[in-house]
Amino acid sequence: MGYAGSYDTLKVYVRTIKEQKTRLAYARFETEPGLQAQVDWGEFQIQEVNGKTTTMKAFIMLLGYSRAMYVEFVHQCTLEVFMNCHINAFHYLGGVPAEILYDNMKNVVLGRENGKVIFNSEFLHFAHHYGFQPRPCPHV
Fold first, then answer.
1. Which residue has the higher pLDDT, 20 or 104?
2. How many domains, the chain?
3. pLDDT digits over 94-130, tens only?
4. Is-above-0.85 flag for pTM?
5. Quick check: is 75 in a domain?
């Protein structure tokens, strides 16, 4: 495509960029036991025996202190499924954290008004029933 340099020159250049990236270190954010968890959805393509590909969602809850994780595969991300996944995670992990961080998903955050979070009221009732505080990520 018109590049006059050699492949080796390009490899050397890319290697220097990769080395710079691998040198970056991030301080791990520590929380007290039982304080915090993070919840998010993952998406996976599953190839069935008949060759058909289906999309599965994975509910993921990660505890901040121990890094213990609960994963549950589901077919849909409805509010009912979302809350059931929380209950299953609480049972599996042996308790309910004081706060759970969310990435502004619609099951939790309906929007913002004047910088203030508008929570899904049904989910907020669920959170209060189980005794945790939902914490959405800052809106960018």
1. 104
2. 1
3. 999 999 999 888 899 998 888 899 999 999 999 999 9
4. no
5. yes
- Within a domain: 65: yes
Instruction: Give the whole-angstrom CA distance, residue 104 versus residue 111.
Output: 8
| CA distance readout (Å), 81 to 9, 74, 119 | 53, 8, 18
Read off the tokens for 79: 């509010």
Res. 140: pLDDT tops 60: no
Residue at 102 is within a domain: yes
Q: Is 59 exposed, middle or buried (0-12, 13-18, 19+ CB in 10 A)?
A: buried
Q: Which domain holds residue 105?
A: 38-134
Both ends of the chain: CA-CA distance in Å?
A: 38
